[in-house]
Amino acid sequence: MPKYISKIEAPKVSIAPMIDRTVRDFRYFIRLITKRSLLYTEMITTHAILHGDRNKILDFDLSERPLALQIAGSDPKEIYEAVKVAEKWDYDEINLNVGCPSNRVSGHMMGAVLMAYPELVAKMVKAMRRATDKAVTVKHRIGIDGTGILPKDFKKVHFDQYEDMKEFIKTVEGSKVDRFTVHARIAILAGLSAKENRKIPPLRYNDVYKLKKEFPYLKIEINGGIKTIKEIEDHLKYVDGVMLGRISYDNPFTLAKVDQFFKKSEVNNISRREIIEDMISYVEQVEAEDRSGYEALRHTLGLFYGKAGSKQWRQLITPPWPADYSGKDILEHALEVLPEESLEERSI
After folding, report:
1. Assuming Cys at both sites, which of 93, 109, 157, 285 could form a disulfide with 68, CB separation 3.0 to 4.6 Å?
2. CA atoms 330, 269, 68, 180: torsion sign
3. Is 139 annotated as ligand-binding?
4. Active site members
5. Residue 312 labeled ligand binder
6. What CATH number is associated with residue 329?
7. Do 173 and 68 share a structural domain?
8. Average pLDDT score over the chain
9. Is 297 strand, coil or helix?
10. In a domain, 340, yes or no
């Protein structure tokens, strides 16, 4: 079979899909800080797209682009139909979740458990490609321990060695995947929570580097535990892109520096004051739609991470708010009382 060489350029930096975090309010906020990084929706199931409130689930603002839709499913027919539905929203790419370690997700044959079924993953990717001309990508782990999830008569339950991942890639790549995003930890599908699966299994970055070396024609992006600009720079010596997770939520101002990794781009020279000023008009719009101002602002709690005023900022944002205070009032008050050096600091 001829090798598929994607013509889609891999983003140098992307922001990982995170349940209850990479929602529209978060994406608006993050897009103020990084103009070039690829953003993702939360993981959305095919069932939700086919049977849920599609506008609520799939709507986004054009300012959020480039933006990828991440889908979870296990049935090629359903995933074809879900991608067809999503075509109306014109996402920049569609990503298949083969990495979620939650045993609840795995119990429904979605997420990381699919690494044990590479032929099925290949069929789903082919179905996605039939449904869209957009880039189709796959996010997965370096391996899984399927004990307690996979059937007892299954041929094996441990897919946790490099050779297992290599065989997975060899099977799936033929379905024309534009990029593989590899979380450099195995997923333990029973006995660990999703949170524990982000910390306890050891990081094996060298496995991802080796994958790129053995499959140089594939677009390979690395994910897992990456927290600093220096680490991004180091990883980009070996792979095509870097996906950032919790750091984008815990210390989002760091992201102002990541645009430098894109061609003909520079550090986004923005201050926290300018970010807050922009969020004032955004939260006014949110509250005019009768949505919670706090829901729009809770994703900004890490804006002053490690800086003077961090605790005060979190206290200001977190309810209960003073009687009759709107989100605009909270933000305007913050601009008056937070330390000037933190408000005016810029990424360069």
Report:
1. 93
2. negative
3. yes
4. 100
5. no
6. 1.20.120
7. yes
8. 96
9. helix
10. yes
